[in-house]
Every structure is written in structure tokens, then in C-alpha cells.
Design goal:
about 50% strand; about 270 residues; seven-stranded antiparallel sheet; eight-stranded mixed sheet; Jelly Rolls; single chain
């Protein structure tokens, strides 16, 4: 979906929940917002530096493997349940409900997660960001696998955009050493939330649970929307809702797309 304004092109990309890649294994359900095997549509295999956005439901005793084909910064969110997370070359770490964990993953390595409960499912989200783009805020010379975790309660995310992760670890957020900011929010019916985007920034909004109204779009659980060349992200919740918001530097691919769009708009005039 493209929205045109005077002298510029604004892009809003929507991926509905049922458009995600769905995998049903014995002890694991997976929904992939981005399909890394899609080579024909660059907006379906990633959104700029956001290369991975997966939702996982693990049966009691079940687990999953995240194989990283590139050097990635990986953020894991345990929405419900308790998992043991094993990063390549590191000791396992326990992540519990409302925990967010961060680790750097080297190219062609595996990350493992296991549901430790014998009776309850675990509900997990993972986001992965490419390391070699937007590296101005990155202080590390290479990937380090150590997992760092932080608890963010429901109360501190209620009705506000709580900063979960940032390039510098401000406001007690996870430090990514990457030009990315992640926010989480729980909103009640009728709550309106607005977020200003700085120039040359893009954003991805994912509806974890619930329904929201965003401009003329009606989005629900599992839907995602990407913003390029927008000045803000603004939505109203239609009921109890949880969202994740990713504020991203503009990747090299997005810069080329935006420049091409502006050139075509100018030629049309």
C-alpha cells in the first residue's frame, strides 16, 4: 500500500496474520512474518534491518531452533511460560514470563529454546536485526553470544510505549549496540498511542494480541505494518491490546527504494 503526498512518496507495508509463513511441527507452532527464502519480494523476506520476526508456541517439553544465516542481534520475548534459552557457545539461561533477552548470534549458528513446563505451553516472540547495517551505534567489532535479560512488567507497559531495547541501554532498557529501539505496550479500549518518527527512520508495528485502528486500517492479532517516509505512528486500540513497535534506521535497500520512488514522482510531474 502506497500513500502519495506532494513531492514525496510514503510507503505503508501490511502483512496480515494469515499471510505469515505457518509451520506446524510436533511440539511447536511457528508463524514467520518474514520469509527468508523469498527472493522475489524484498518486503516479504525482511523489513530493512529487521530480518526475523517469529512467533512460537511451544508444547510442554517442546522447543525450537533458530538458525541464523547472518550475523544478527536477536531479542527474545517470553510472553507466557518459562523457557531455557541456549545461545551458541554459552551456558543455558532461563527466560520467564515477561522477560526479554538479547544476544548476538554469529552467522551460520543455532540458538535453542526449550519449554521447561510439563503442563503449560510457552508463547515466545523473536526479532533479529542484521549487524552490518546501521552500524554507527554499534560498539562491538563482532558478534558476541552472551545473553542478557530484563523483566518488564505489565504495569510499566500499560498505556505507554515502554522502551525495551535501545542502542545505548537508556531507561533501563536492553543495550543492543545497534541503531534500533524496541517498544512494548498494553493498551485498553479507546487508548490512543502516537509515536514520532525522526527523519530517515522506519518502523514496524506488530499486533501481539487484540485489535487496533491505524488510519484506515483495521489490524488484529498477528498483523504487522511497516512505515517508510512517515513522520509518526499513531493508532487507537479497539479493546485490550498488546503491541510491539520497532524504530529502525533506514537500511540501504530502503534508501534505494525511497530514492527511486521520489525520482519517479518528480518525473511524473
Amino acid at each position: 500500500m502506497a500513500c502519495h503526498g506532494p513531492g514525496e512518496i510514503k510507503l505503508i507495508k501490511v502483512i496480515k496474520s494469515d499471510e505469515r509463513q505457518y509451520l506446524d511441527a510436533k511440539d511447536q507452532l511457528t508463524w514467520k512474518t518474514f520469509d527468508d527464502e523469498n527472493t522475489t519480494d524484498p518486503l516479504k523476506n525482511s523489513f530493512g534491518i529487521l530480518k526475523v520476526l517469529n512467533e512460537e508456541i511451544l508444547s510442554p517439553g517442546g522447543g525450537f531452533i533458530l538458525h541464523t544465516k547472518k550475523d544478527l542481534v536477536v531479542v527474545t520475548y517470553v510472553r507466557e511460560g518459562v523457557i531455557v534459552y541456549k545461545s551458541y557457545g554459552e551456558e543455558p539461561i532461563k527466560l520467564e514470563t515477561k522477560d526479554f533477552g538479547r544476544n548476538n548470534s554469529a552467522e551460520d549458528t543455532n540458538q535453542y529454546a526449550f519449554n521447561t513446563s510439563e503442563s503449560e505451553e510457552a508463547h515466545v516472540f523473536q526479532a533479529g536485526f542484521k549487524m552490518d547495517e546501521c552500524s554507527g551505534a554499534c560498539e562491538d567489532d563482532g558478534p558476541k553470544q552472551k545473553v542478557v535479560k530484563q523483566l518488564f512488567t505489565h504495569a510499566e507497559r500499560q498505556g505507554v510505549l515502554r522502551l525495551i531495547a535501545s542502542s545505548d541501554g537508556r531507561l533501563s532498557s536492553l543495550s543492543l549496540k545497534q541503531d534500533v529501539q524496541i517498544y512494548s505496550s498494553f493498551a485498553g479500549k479507546g487508548n490512543h498511542i502516537a509515536y514520532e518518527l525522526k527523519p530517515s527512520r522506519t518502523a514496524w508495528l506488530h499486533v501481539v494480541k487484540g485489535q487496533i485502528s491505524l488510519n484506515d486500517l483495521q489490524l488484529q492479532t498477528g498483523d504487522g505494518v511497516g512505515f517508510t517516509e512517515e513522520s509518526s505512528v499513531s493508532f487507537t486500540s479497539k479493546g485490550p491490546t498488546e503491541i510491539l513497535l520497532f524504530d529502525l534506521c533506514e537500511s540501504k535497500v530502503q534508501e534505494k527504494v525511497a530514492s527511486k520512488g521520489k525520482l519517479q514522482t518528480a518525473e511524473a510531474r
